[in-house]
Amino acid sequence: MVASAIGVFAPGAAINYMRRRQALHSYAAASNAGPNKAWLPSNKSADELIKTDHKLMRARARSLTRDSSHVSGAIRKICNNVVFKGIHPQANLRTLNGDAKDRLNSRAESQWKKWAKAVDFHEKENLVLRHWWHDGELFAHYYFDEDLLRKGIIPLGLELLECDHLDAGKSSLTDGERIKQGIQYTANGKTDGYWLFREHPGDNTWLTMNRSQFYSAQMINHLFIRERISQNRGVSWLASIIMEMRDFSEYQNAERIAKRLVAAFGLFVTTPYPENLGSFNPFGGDGKPLTVDSIPDYMESGRIQILPPGMTVESPSSDRPGATYEPYTKTSLRGASTGFNMSYEAYSNDYTDASYSSARSATLEERRGYQVQQFLLANKFHQDAWERLWLMNRLSRTEDLPEEIPVVWQMPGWPWVDPFKDSKAAEQDLKNGLTSRHKLCMERGIDYDEINNDLQRERADVFSLNTQTGGNDNAGTD
């Protein structure tokens, strides 16, 4: 209405009014004015961005993991906390009662333990987590293994394949075939299988004879974490800090080189008379003229050296690293530690400015992040392997066990930050009915059944000892 009224008398003013009014209803984040004019990110699908950027991004992430002490150390700490001695199953069959149920659960756990040792499952736990961090994805290939069958072990073979094995250049979107970046889909959009190179394409030995083959999704578990709906491949978890840590590493190298150059020179000999650098009349000595060549390359401690006239000795000086070195280092490492979901102190191993309360808060926050990774690892990798193991057992008839066995995964826990206060809090929660001994054991990474059996044995040992010595619990009391 207002614009129409203005437009009757001044059309130009009406247009300006509408433009300014429209600007009031726009998002500031979409402004193209000033320094934001060149910030024009793409709105492509996740798969399309991965298609163009994944190869270089994972190569840079792997380089940082190899060469950066901070990045490699952080990933090692993460694996130590998330995996530690391994994530173990606790079979949870409830269809039977009493001893029969316990024996069946124990047999299932024993068969898993034998199989896990045969395929080196603990090493694979660490590898899955490491590859999620620097690659974002990998493949678990399951197959029938006759060698395991001959050993009396459930014959489920397992090998891990790096994401390089995926033939990402293979795409076909015809009516009869839907292949996108090496992943084949059914008509309703479900994953049908994968086109994989049998040998690693980065191995030059197999470069000329390596062709991709189709593997059914029943044999392959594509291990990655989806962060966008349109994403069907994984992205390195280091993606947000790759450039920051690369710049920091280059800065560190530049400072080291600068200091090495300064340290390479002990003294400088200077003169205001460069035209007299030929020969000089000696002030004394053996009668030979003093020249520039008379000055030794190295000076020994306590040496008295006569210099040509007009020459003086100066020691090199450098202000590298300067006063901004430490603040810049801390700022860079703090930013990178956020990308790892770690505290600055844990990431940098610098506890000089940390108080007990801040360190405790940071530790609890870190552990929450570790628990999320434990859940992802157990849900994506361990649970899938567990279900495939009993399916293979049914097909091979290795053990007389059910095809489906419910399981609870025992995660590695952590010691209490403040044992006295934490134990008191746990005791109070037990009294108030807010937790259970079984849950407390799981939080600390302890097997409840194992603790319970140990306590029973201890009680039995005490009873046996009292019986042999003729003592009793009430001895010496009225």
From TrEMBL:
<dbReference type="GO" id="GO:0005198">
    <property type="term" value="F:structural molecule activity"/>
</dbReference>
<dbReference type="InterPro" id="IPR006429">
    <property type="entry name" value="Phage_lambda_portal"/>
</dbReference>
<feature type="region of interest" description="Disordered">
    <location>
        <begin position="309"/>
        <end position="328"/>
    </location>
</feature>
<dbReference type="GO" id="GO:0019068">
    <property type="term" value="P:virion assembly"/>
</dbReference>
<dbReference type="Pfam" id="PF05136">
    <property type="entry name" value="Phage_portal_2"/>
</dbReference>
<protein>
    <submittedName>
        <fullName>Phage portal protein, lambda family</fullName>
    </submittedName>
</protein>
